[in-house]
Write a structure and sequence with these properties.
Layout (H helix, E strand, L loop, with lengths): L1 H16 L19 E7 L7 E6 L4 E7 L4 E6 L9 E6 L3 E8 L3 H6 L4 E7 L2 E6 L4 E6 L2 E2 L4
Parallel strand pairs: 1-7
Antiparallel strand pairs: 1-4, 2-3, 2-5, 5-6, 6-10, 7-8, 8-9
Length: 149
C-alpha cells in the first residue's frame, strides 16, 4: 500500500513541477501533452518550382519529400511526457535552402497554431507560419543561398 502511495506522490510532484502543465491558452486549452498536433509544410513557391523537404525529431524521421507546386506534406504526433518534443526541417528550392524548427514547446507557437495545426509555407521570399490568431502568414525565416548559386 505504501509503495502505491509513494508512487502517486512522486507522480503528483512530477506533474506539479512541469512548467508546461501551467500553460493555459486564451481558448482554455490546458495540458499540451494530450493534444494531437498536426504540422504541415506547404510549397507556396512560384514559377512551378518543386520544394525538397526533410523533417525530423530526435525520435522520428519523416523522410525526404519533393513537393510539387501548391502541394503539402503533413504529419501528426503528441508531445512526449517531458514536453521536450522538437521537430525541425531542412528545405531546399532551386537556389536556396533553410533549416528551422517547426515545432517546439512555446505558448506563442501554440497560439499561432491554434493549439492544433502548425502550417509552414515556403514562399519565394522566405518561410512563413500561418498565424490563425491574426489570420495572416507571419514571416519567420529567410532563405540562405546555396553555395555556387
Amino acid at each position: 500500500m505504501s509503495a502505491i502511495r509513494n508512487s502517486l506522490v512522486l507522480l503528483v510532484l512530477a506533474l506539479a513541477m512541469s512548467p508546461s502543465w501551467l500553460i493555459i491558452s486564451a481558448n482554455g486549452n490546458v495540458l499540451p501533452l494530450f493534444i494531437k498536433w498536426h504540422v504541415y509544410i506547404v510549397n507556396g513557391l512560384s514559377n512551378n518550382m518543386t520544394l525538397f523537404i526533410h523533417c525530423q525529431s530526435s525520435d522520428n524521421d519523416m523522410g525526404n519529400h519533393n513537393l510539387s507546386p501548391a502541394a503539402n506534406f503533413s504529419w501528426s504526433f503528441r508531445t512526449n511526457f517531458f514536453h521536450s518534443t522538437v521537430f525541425s526541417c531542412y528545405i531546399r528550392k532551386d537556389d536556396a535552402q533553410a533549416t528551422f524548427k517547426v515545432f517546439w514547446q512555446d505558448p506563442v507557437l501554440f497560439e499561432r497554431c491554434k493549439w492544433k495545426n502548425c502550417i509552414w509555407i515556403a514562399k519565394d521570399d522566405g518561410i512563413y507560419i500561418r498565424d490563425f490568431q491574426n489570420e495572416q502568414d507571419e514571416f519567420r525565416y529567410q532563405w540562405e543561398a546555396l553555395a555556387g548559386c
